[in-house]
What we know:
By secondary structure, this protein is mainly beta. It is built from no helices and 9 strands.
Amino acid sequence: MSETYNYAVLTASGLVKTGPGVLHSLVLDGGTANSTALAYDEVSGSGTELAAVRALAGTTGATGPLDVAFGVGLYVVLAGTAPRATVAFR
């Protein structure tokens, strides 16, 4: 049986999910400047880091299937100019 994932598209830092879950993947479009996306097991922009993705301006950075469990929540911090992240989770 295949897994079903939810997804969120972010253009700014934000809370993706509260409570326990699984971070499946994180894709970052670099925007107009070098960008980063950091995923945390927390409901704010700190805590246990789950994944980090970096992308040069105009390129895409991605994590492969991570399937990393989190317990508190999933919060993604974006930095750079006009980054966009797609987060797959359950």
